[in-house]
């Protein structure tokens, strides 16, 4: 049974939230793992992660945030403006992270990164993304190494030219001293 959307007890005319239907980019296993993480930090067991629960979550994940930082994290995905995260809004964090829509220094980026689903349990789709990211990082590292090599070659060339100019100067100088 998925974590519900809205108030405990159904809330009347609200439609039922189906994570698998709306967040098709995630596998069922990923959704289960995210739901488990959500439930783990929903200390009040009310179907929401409020400011204090988010504070505890970020501390346990090793990325403590300021009070203002926590409020901004909630505000970034809080669609119903209730100043707490429903499971759907919690999933939006991971959707935005996967789409590269979170700033590197934001608390939500840290949350998504620190609570990443392990690649070994994520399956082929996740492994593909993991290896594509690794290949991109390797390419960037290679480009960086190439730039360093080019700079070193330029320095060697300049040192060789300086050496040749000094030798030419000494040769010219010796003709005047004889």
From TrEMBL:
<keyword id="KW-0106">Calcium</keyword>
<feature type="coiled-coil region">
    <location>
        <begin position="134"/>
        <end position="172"/>
    </location>
</feature>
<dbReference type="InterPro" id="IPR049025">
    <property type="entry name" value="AIF-1_EF_pair"/>
</dbReference>
<dbReference type="Pfam" id="PF21008">
    <property type="entry name" value="AIF-1"/>
</dbReference>
<keyword id="KW-0175">Coiled coil</keyword>
<dbReference type="GO" id="GO:0005509">
    <property type="term" value="F:calcium ion binding"/>
</dbReference>
<dbReference type="InterPro" id="IPR002048">
    <property type="entry name" value="EF_hand_dom"/>
</dbReference>
<protein>
    <submittedName>
        <fullName>EFHD2 protein</fullName>
    </submittedName>
</protein>
<keyword id="KW-0479">Metal-binding</keyword>
<dbReference type="InterPro" id="IPR011992">
    <property type="entry name" value="EF-hand-dom_pair"/>
</dbReference>
<feature type="domain" description="EF-hand">
    <location>
        <begin position="65"/>
        <end position="100"/>
    </location>
</feature>
<feature type="domain" description="EF-hand">
    <location>
        <begin position="29"/>
        <end position="64"/>
    </location>
</feature>
<keyword id="KW-0677">Repeat</keyword>
<dbReference type="InterPro" id="IPR040365">
    <property type="entry name" value="EFHD1/2"/>
</dbReference>
């Amino acid at each position: 049974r998925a974590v519900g959307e809205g108030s405990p007890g159904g809330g009347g005319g609200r439609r039922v939230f189906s994570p698998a239907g709306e967040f098709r980019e995630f596998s069922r296993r990923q959704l289960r793992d995210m739901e488990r993480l959500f439930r783990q930090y929903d200390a009040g067991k009310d179907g929401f992660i409020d400011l204090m629960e988010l504070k505890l979550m970020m501390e346990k994940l090793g990325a403590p945030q300021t009070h203002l930082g926590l409020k901004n994290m909630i505000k970034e995905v809080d669609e119903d403006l209730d100043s707490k995260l429903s499971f759907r809004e919690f999933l939006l964090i991971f959707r935005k992270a996967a789409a590269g829509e979170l700033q590197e220094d934001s608390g939500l980026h840290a949350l998504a990164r620190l609570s990443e689903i392990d690649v070994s349990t994520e399956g082929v789709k996740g492994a593909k993304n993991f290896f594509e990211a690794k290949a991109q990082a390797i390419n960037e590292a290679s480009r960086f190494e190439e730039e360093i090599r080019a700079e070193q070659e330029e320095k060697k060339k300049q040192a060789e030219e300086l050496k040749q100019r000094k030798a030419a100067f000494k040769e010219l100088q010796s003709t005047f001293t004889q």
